[in-house]
Amino acid sequence: MTPIQEQLTALGGVFQAAVLVDRIAKTGQSSEAAMTCMLGSLLVLDPKDTLDVYGGDDLNLREGYRALASALERDPATLQREPLRYALSMLGLERQLAKRDDMLEIIGKRLPQIQSQAEHFGVAHENVVSACGALYQDTLSTLRQRIQVHGDMRNLQQPNNASKIRALLLTGIRSARLWRQVGGHRWQLVVSRRKLLKELYPLMHG
User: Fold this and answer.
1) Cβ distance 141 to 96 under 8 Å?
2) How far apart (Å, rounded) are the C-alpha atoms in residues 155 and 161?
3) Using CA atoms, how far apart are residues 178 and 2, in angstroms rounded to an integer?
4) How far is residue 203's CA from residue 206's CA, in Å, rounded to a whole number?
């Protein structure tokens, strides 16, 4: 993978999490395959490349790529506004997290516990979702910048949906961290828009 492909893949992960959060908030629905891919991304600690974090297949990130493309194209007709807002918020939260060694330590200690739960129950099991949601709540949701999720209150008030949303926000911030690690920067989204789109289209069509 080229450096730009690595960056787009990780950014696709941020947007994939954002799209799924938006869908659960508005419809209460989530695909188990999509949840499995994103929760699994928290547990891949030694990937051979960035795509390996997401199960090794661009298809797993197709909706994230689509939302990212609509953001880069700046076409009001296709722009997914809420996912874009969530994605930008996750990139911002990751910057705050990077300065908090105490929080990184808690996350580093608890992920292996979640890993063993995932091995026992399966990655998308409600116990694993709930553990990931609790980890987000104990760490990132205590930062001053908070992500406000908008949707149907009936969906947002269901505890299992709330857990899924928190767990997905955690996966999005993991992807944002990965994006930084492979050389991603906020200014690229403004300055290198066309270049990113040119590289993104082939990934979208697998």
Assistant:
1) no
2) 7
3) 15
4) 5
Residue 197: which of 90, 58, 66 has the closest Cα?
A: 66
* Residue 113, burial from CB neighbour count under 10 angstroms (0-12, 13-18, 19+): exposed
Q: Helix 3-27 crosses helix 193-204 at what angle (to 10 degrees)?
A: 70
Q: What is the CATH number of domain 3-204?
A: 1.10.3890.10
SS (H, E, C) the chain: CCHHHHHHHHHHHHHHHHHHHHHHHHHCCCCHHHHHHHHHHCCCCCCCCHHHHCCCCHHHHHHHHHHHHHHHHCCCCCCCHHHHHHHHHHHHHHHHHHCCHHHHHHHHHHHHHHHHHHHHHCCCCHHHHHHHHHHHHHCHHHCCCCCCCCCCHHHHCCHHHHHHHHHHHHHHHHHHHHHHHCCCCCCHHHHCHHHHHHHHHHHHCC
One digit per residue, pLDDT tens: the chain, 206 residues? 999 999 999 999 999 999 999 999 999 999 999 999 999 999 998 899 999 999 999 999 999 999 999 999 999 999 999 999 999 999 999 999 999 999 999 999 999 999 999 999 999 999 999 999 999 999 999 999 999 999 999 999 999 999 999 999 999 999 999 999 999 999 999 899 999 999 999 999 86
**Residue 81 token pair:** 């506004």
